[in-house]
Amino acid sequence: MTYEATVEFKFDATYTHTYGSFLDADDYIPEEHYKITAPAADLNAKQYFKLFEKFMLCVGMTPESIRSGAMSLVFNDYVREEEQRKVCAEYELTMDEDLEKKYQEWKERDAQWAKMNAQYEKNFGSEPKIKGEWVDSANGVA
Asked: What are the two backbone dihedrals, phi and then psi, of residue 6, each rounded to the nearest 5 degrees?
């Protein structure tokens, strides 16, 4: 038994110019028809979203509003926090609730780095950048 399926997005629009209108008729296409079809038997969720993105661009949506709409499916009050955190982990995102913890981790890391760098400077000093720049601090000799 074979299975075949297609998905279709269709958009039809007409514009009728009314005389006396301040809009210029040259700014409008009097008739527009968009039809996007794809084989649906093996599409996964990401492919369906990509297909719908193309359709939304055809009907005049901006990429910013499309992304905002997609993110609103994940980050709204009706989606459990555990599910939101899974998406954050998958795409390396940080939720607002976790920013203070991240900030404290960064402060701790910066303090450790400063301590390690000070220890290095104390034990090894700085290395010369240019030949002849080295000065022996004990003897004052270059």
From this structure: -130, 150
Whole-number pLDDT of residue 64: 97
Residue 141 lies in a domain: no
In a domain, 142, yes or no: no
Instruction: Pinpoint the alpha helices (H) of the chain.
Output: 45-58, 63-74, 81-91, 99-124
Per the model's pLDDT, the better-predicted residue between 129 and 10 turns out to be 10
Establish if 10 belongs to a structural domain.
yes
Per-residue pLDDT of 57-91, as tens digits, reads: 988 899 999 999 999 999 999 999 999 999 999 99
Going by C-beta distance under 8 Å and a sequence separation of 6 or more, which residues neighbour residue 47?
Answer: 38
What is the C-alpha R_g of the chain? 31
**Residues 56 and 73 grouped into a single domain:** yes
Show the CA angle centred on residue 101, arms to residues 98 and 104, nearest 5°. 150
**Would you say the pTM of this structure is higher than 0.70?**
no
Pair of tokens at residue 139: 């003897």
Residue 69 covered by a domain: yes
Number of domains composing the chain: 2
